[in-house]
Fold:
Amino acid sequence: MAVERTLSIIKPDGVRKKVIGEVIKRFESNNLKIVAAKLIHMSKEQAEGFYAVHKERPFFGEVIEFITSGPCMVMALEGEDAIKRNRALMGATNPAEAEAGTIRADFASDIQCNVVHGSDAPETAAFEIGHFFADNEIQNIIWD
Ligand code: CMP
Structure:
């Protein structure tokens, strides 16, 4: 299995609910290492660039409004099969469909306020990490 990097965002609802620590604990205890992190309040332009793939979707305006409504914790996670494993920890986009014990089942309230975002493929992970982090903001030290 290849070592991958993936972008994780703890969205404004997660920050407001004070579950940053709970979410990070799940990553760290599942061997997803944080190699970059910052707390940011996204601008409209930054959010529209990030979610550009959803531009034509009916929920685009709401997603932009929500993600820019407060601070987010953005992180790059690294580990074996990180993209898929992060998504498994997150659970389904709609928390009503998320498996018990996943982050969204435990902390999310609806499809919009779903606490976390995770990249869905290697190409999107590279784009998304690059959208928020410069190369010198990503750590290359590998711990066991
Ligand atoms: P995320 O993984 O950040 O990617 C796009 C986001 O759009 C998604 O999580 C949801 O929070 C949000 N969203 C809002 N409405 C919908 C919808 N009807 N279908 C899918 N995603 C939605």
